[in-house]
Amino acid sequence: MRNLLLFLLMAALFAAVGFGQSWSLSLAILNLCLISAVMSLGVNIQWGYAGLLNVGIMGFVALGGLAAVLVSMPPVTDAINAGGGGVAISALIMLATFAVMYMANKHFHFFGRKLLVAVIGVAGLMFARHFFGPATDAIESVDPAGTGNLGGLGLPIIVSWVVGGFFAAAAAWAVGKISLGLRSDYLAIATLGISEIIVAVLKYEDWLTRGVKNVSGLPRPVPYEVNLQKETWVIEFAAKHGFTVQEVSSLIVKGSYALLFTIVLLIVLYLSEKALRSPWGRMMRAIRDNEVAAEAMGKDVKGRHLQVFILGSAVIGVAGAMLTTLDGQFTPASYQPLRFTFLIWVMVIVGGSGNNWGAVLGGFVIWFFWIEAEPIGLWLMEFITSGMAEDSALRIHLIKSAAHMRLMTMGLVLLLVLRFTPRGLIPERGYGRR
Amino acid sequence: MELLNPLALLGNFLIIPGLTYGCQLALGALGVTLIYGILRFSNFAHGETMALGTMATLLVTLWLQSAGISLGPLPTALLALPVGIAICIFFTLATDRLVYRFYRRQKSTPVIFLIASLGVMFLYNGLIRFIVGPGDRIFTDGERFIFTAREFKEMTGLREGMAFKTTQGITIVVTIVIVALLFWFLTRTRTGKSMRAYSDNEDLALLSGISPDKVVMVAWILTAVLATIAGTLYGLDKSFKPFTYLQILLPIFAAAIVGGLGSPLGAIAGGFVIAFSEVALTFAYKRVLGYLLPEGQMPEGLVQLLSTDYKFAVSFAILVIVLLVRPTGIFRGQTI
Questions:
Q1: Could you give phi then psi for residue B161, rounded to 5 degrees?
Q2: Domain A2-75+151-420: which topology?
Q3: What does pTM read for this prediction?
Q4: How far apart are CA B44 and CA A331, in angstroms?
Q5: Which chain B residues are within 8 Å of A337, Cβ to Cβ?
Q6: Could you say which of B109, B126, B313 has the minimum Cβ distance to residue A408?
Q7: Measured between beta carbons, which residues in chain B are less than 8 angstroms from residue A196?
Q8: At B239, is the secondary structure helix, strand, or coil?
Q9: How far does B147 lie from chain A, in Å, by closest CA?
């Protein structure tokens, strides 16, 4: 009952923005809320089900974005002819190097074999770079102002939502293999590292993603405003209800995005709930609450952890691809840890860790206030400083810094919820935690 | 003489920057390791603690500069440092009182502490941006160089110059002094010994009458001192930008883990391991090889293993290797 009320309250907030500011803004916030909800569902799978701490959400989101580019952009044939072969050769060399390193490590047992493995690795890297450098230079010199990268497969962008999930899952597998089974802190630090590296690669490898030049004009899964504005039914609808044609077309586009995202959210939510209530979900909770006992019962703790970590990351990757689809462009420089990692954590903790509905609500509430904190903060600052002189330095500084208020507010919210209602807005049902 | 020129080249671009960066990382990692040893969690807010202390030092420096006070050839920031440290200590103690003490009483798992430290990180980050804004600030003043590349060339008659910046000299000297003081404190004083006892075996230490509150308080004070000094040295050497302190968190954690979480000696060793691998792997050896190889064998490329864009990939790679090969770190920290 209380949960329903909370969701209704959320709906009322959207309506308030719709009436108070504009419906277009309200829908824009809703779209990002839906994506945030999927992300926090992914984190909830890792943290809420299994107690795994992922501090590299940003990296998995960025991989989803990469998938959107690689799947949907048209291929650049000239670039592929110029350097595709070289890139493929260097990739093969690196693969072979890894294989040789692995074999050497397995096969030899003399003292100092690790050194040999390292030498093989460095030699392979140098050899691969010999092909890689010229190939990427060739790719980047093909129409650098327009493309300068390999392009993509030219498939519908919706496909990338699935591919993004697979990309993120692959990265999660690698990180999990290394750091699971050790202390919980290590996973956190390893994910922090991998996310920084993923974003760095996306930022600097121009041949792949155009780097900081950004990829814009990604194809859309929904119609374009300009085309809608020519449709007779849109014009008639606008005339009948007293809107402008622009407003109606923008609402339709945003609404269709919202519909698509809602479908994804519902699918993920359904599957998560199913999983949580299955024997598998009970096992996960058992492992989370007492690893030693679960292991004694014959559960493969490390294997389950790896599995759940991969699943959660895949969901985050899907959300990342959705986000890039909505933006219509891929901007590697926009991936900031505060926005994409720590804000998602606030969503999960505030919503209620371990409860999928809580994670969804947390995604909605936190994103809503993250956006609305700016006007609210500005208004608050103007109210506080209204007694001061118009040109007082403090007043100007305070109003200028109001935008940074929301970071502080989010930190405060996280700390307060963690301390006073550690179970979140919608607590996990029926199971005592820790 | 062909050996001295490449040596000077290496010194200028590899050894001196590596030493300086290593000192900064070592001081940062010492703070992380201390908190880990005493409170048993990885403090994700450590980067922001560094930024906070640096910000306080920066503001006092600006005030001193506007009042016309300076240290002559040395940067004014050194004069402001004690005030910055005091402010940072105030913040860490207040944070402990308001945030972490509750979970300590509850005997929460380290993961909960970690999440709380994420919240603290957010809070500090917002506070810093609120007060000084997200922009870049340079607060270095005084002499820029102990000796410049040209002076070095004139002094030695070599073709390659080697510059030694004042900030680099200060970083190295200050780090040696601070580390010596820290080890003296930990091994010679009663409080320091009780801290080590507490870190080694909490229950036994409590039974011998060591006050946990005092140990925790001293740990936070030491952390604040180390963080402020590390952050200020880093800020003097580069420039103060709130965002960089979030990025330096990864190398610092890597340094602490490589050395062995909870081991102060390990933190220092780890700092230098990370710093030197980072600098050495991203260094272009072309000119050095040009001196060493016979005439006409000059290599074509830059002979650089990794582009500088990926410097923090190095700390991550080392971290991965350590986790795979020896998860307890070089000095067997208290892990797993």
A1: -90, 160
A2: ABC transporter involved in vitamin B12 uptake, BtuC (1.10.3470)
A3: 0.87
A4: 27
A5: 246
A6: B126
A7: 247, 250, 312, 316
A8: coil
A9: 35
